[in-house]
Amino acid sequence: MPRIQLDYSIYLVTGRELLPPGKDYYESLEESLQGGVTLVQVREKNADTGEFIEVARRTKQICDKYNVPVLINDRIDVHLAVGTAGIHIGQTDCPLPLARQLIGPDAIIGLSVRNLNECKRAIEQKADYIGIGTVWRTESKDTKGRKCLGPDGTGEILDLLHDTGVQAVAIGGIHLPNLPQLLHGSISPKYSNSLDGIAIISDIVSSKNPRESASNLREIVDSFKRARKSLNQYQVKGGVFDSPFVIEHRNKNEFTNDYLIKRVEDLMNVLKDETPLINQLTNKVVMNDSANVTLAVGASPIMSTNPRDVYDLSPAIGACLINFGTIDDKEGMQVAGRQANVNKKPLIFDPVAVGATSFRRETAQELLAHWQPTVIKGNAAEIGAMAESSEVASRGVDAAGSGFKDPGSIVKQLAKKRAAIIVLTGPEDYISDGNLVIKLSNGSHYLEKITGSGCQAGTLIACFSAASKIDYLNKNNEELFENKSQLVQGDMLLGAIAGILVYTVASEIAAERSDVKGPGTFRSALIDELYNLTPETISQRAKIEIRY
Ligand SMILES: Cc1ncc(COP(=O)(O)OP(=O)(O)O)c(N)n1
Ligand SMILES: Cc1nc(C(=O)O)sc1CCOP(=O)(O)O
After folding, report:
1. Per-residue pLDDT tens digits for 513-546
2. Which ligand has an atom closest to residue 88 CA?
3. Which of 6, 76, 88 to mutate to test the pocket of ligand 1 (most atoms within 8 A of CB)?
4. For residues 339 and 366, is the Cβ–Cβ distance under 8 A?
5. Which ligand is nearest to the CA of 146?
6. What range(s) does the Thiamine phosphate synthase/TenI domain occupy (predicted)?
């Protein structure tokens, strides 16, 4: 008989010592089940055997009312005494093959996994599921000396589970604000596997209102799973598509150049009407020009980097740009990005010269463990480094060589790996959400002759991503909270396309002006042409190619 299938979505691990003062354990448990907990593990670190059995027995009685299975932490004897669905064991507990012999073929066995080797062994030993941790620091267990895996490390482990049938939850430091970042950021780089659920102690147990806490977490996990399912449907059927970043359900036949141009025009008007604030943590070399291009398209720049300030500003901004050209404000970047995720703001990451030094590579990894970007923009060297491709070597901030043999597939694969929109800039620009690749062929050779043109493109992507979110909210007010797992509402692919198109078309017009004699005059003319650009000009000049 096959073992029962468990729903790992919201996996409550109990912790009586973490209850708020005065809250009864059984009352808290029942409320959390009403909020949507799908699986419970009884974890008793201080109880003696008799007490553990009694707690497990009463826990199972309550869970049975809600048809929620119970597992026992570590103790095979308690599992056998109470007749629960199975056990969860750690690396130093009873070895899995022995545990299987003792509890029989039908019981569930989950195993804690901290790295790739432990995961391989869990697969060999036929664990039913693995608990991947610790994702982030936690006060609920002593994890001193252990490396936090972050969403990235979790995703690498998920890749190994491809086609194995082994399920996976993540554990450690998971709370409502960082949950969307974990779910999106842990989508595995090679096979796009995602978590089956999350294991939680304190976010539920320490809550005064465990029903609400569980229900909030459940809503995010459910909507993430729905979005993943519709993405898979698109890949299978090749018809209507809906990536995790795109709320608009588009039909392939309607997604044409004319449609894109019309939507870019809409966003140009939104920016002028709504003047969103764009916070830019950017490098010293380009700060002034970036602020000016922001103003030229109708948005409003702010260049705040102080951690307290970016925290307070976050709810009020339209989008956040993190450009780590001079990496002076790492703490500010960590806080700004994290708060952008929490407040569901578009977060644009420009990893300037990321492949040039190990410091830059490590900083990028560290930042990406703190937050999930909506868009990653770079030149060939930067995108190559992010994709861990050796095809294009990195030389300072410039892309060496002519780029990739197949740029479309590089951006598409990286978009899947990073669960973000990827923008590759160069003589032609390539943009992908992991499903589609858009090639844009506007621009001027002068862009290579002024400093910070790539940085300005990142700024404009941030402006138009903010416009895309505003546009979405203006049109779908009642559906504001339709998909709580969404990192940001609005069509972020469109925001990226609009930013690049507006910038490159304006650069063409600037370069054609008779008063432009070289890079110096081009630089000023570019800001003027961004300011004067009309939707009609975009429509006349845009060179767009859509590839599936
Ligand atoms: C779902 C889940 N994952 C990991 C753990 C940790 O188990 P273990 O390593 O055995 O540590 P203790 O829980 O015994 O402290 C877990 N309990 N549940
Ligand atoms: C029990 C446990 N195991 C972990 C691991 O990494 O194996 S982390 C952890 C504690 C999880 O508690 P919270 O949800 O409060 O962070």
Report:
1. 999 999 999 999 999 999 999 999 999 999 999 9
2. 1
3. 88
4. no
5. 2
6. 10-204
